[in-house]
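User: I'm writing a tutorial on reading structure tokens. Could you give me a worked example: one chain, its sequence, then its tokens, then a sentence or two explaining what the tokens reveal?
Assistant: Sure. Here is the example chain.
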Amino acid sequence: MFVSPDDWQPLRASLLLAVPLLYLLSAALANWRVARHCTAVALSLAVASLALLAFGGPLVIYTVRADAAGCMVLLLVSFVGWVITRYSQTYMAGDAGQYRYVRWLMATLACVGMVVVTNNLLVLALCWLATSLCLHKLLTFFSGRPAALIAAHKKFLASRLGDICLFAGVALTGTCLGSLEIDQINAKAQALMHYPTALKVAVFCFVISALLKCAQLPVHGWLIQVMEAPTPVSALLHAGIVNLGGFLMIRLSPLVAEVSGAQTLLVVVGSLTAALAALVMMTRISAKVMLAWSTCAQMGFMLMQCGLQAYDLALLHLMAHSLYKAHAFLGAGGAVEQARLKVMSAPPASVRLSLLLAAAGGGLVMVLAAGMLWGVAFDKPSALWVLAAIVSLATTPLMLPLFAAQGFRMTGLWPLGMLLGALAVPLTYFGLHQVFGFLVDLPQGIGPTWFDLVWVMLCFVLLFALQCLIYARPRGRVASALYPWFYAGLYLDEWFTRATFRIWPARMSAAVIKPQAGVSK
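And here are its predicted structure tokens:
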């Protein structure tokens, strides 16, 4: 007998809700064996939900939402949660507080799962708040480390400011549109000829909340300083939780796309954060600190893509960054070993500016060729046009050996192989753009303004110019003058730290502030 896709709707909703409920069950039992089995079953249910989506299409039922973006992110969360749980059991073996750790780890995953599957904006906000509170317990797991407590305190304050903005946006949106169901909010917003002022304020509240919770300038410092927490917690934070701001923007993309000022705010703050964090990374030698600054930069780039209405590429960025960062943090020991080998090896020779510019020109040719092969239209400026230009700058290191001295001595198939490798990057980028553009329902908004496009180009061209100047003359006057400023992150975090301690000082227990034996007061 033929079964209609509609007959599967209650089952699909049950599968989606079962994922966070399994995490909640394992949190209540606080047992490693239960946690391992629950995360494995949750991963299987996430795979089944994605398969049923392909069979039955998008679904909204019982305030649960199943679409391409939600199901892919749920699969991502379930996979990362499964890996981190298995890693954590070995990492925390023998620790007296390991069952307290597994309880809050599973509770955090349960809250993140509900953020992803819910179709109700208020439920999403409440679960995001609960996610932050559960994560705070993990960040302060080693309660005897003052640095961990201070970083967690700064994160707590920044997140509470984000929550205030988020709940204000929820209240204003419900008042203006008469609904808190996300699909109805987006539909009603698109039907409006003009947004009322209160709804525009709500959109700005959502954007500011995403910027605060994604550790953008100038409240980024806590993300760099939470390395005192257990390594699996760092992986969970950088690979999953900090990405939720981008997920909120994707969920509310039809609503946000009609407010050009909110888009410009995403573009300006996101691009500035990405550029500054990339420059700061050049001054750091600690592998984990570099990874943290990398997350800060990647979050800025993802939110900038949202501001340019490239939501499909933002989703691609979210998933790729999460998988990469989970692997990077859980394999931080190998990264440190590679860094040590790099320090012991001979320093790389300086590169002439002319070669860097020639390599950038070669990267631009590769991007244009890949775009033509995929049928991308470059006839008028657009977000994809600007992002493709950034990709061409990113391919410069791949093209540089062909223009350097050793490139002229290459024989055989090496030059062809390097050209194909450089071409594979933009080919993959445009190919995934086509795939995710098909999966994600892009809003028909007003589009990015000329200011947004020009601002992004100026930011990344200036970033590329500074990086080239530093690589070409690492001991030159410009590099020597800029190094202390970029090493200090332009002192923005010091300002935020002083502000947090004036508003709400962190409380340290007596065990933390008690001087060690043999140390004078």
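What the tokens reveal: The longest helix spans residues 146-177. Residues 120-345 form one domain.
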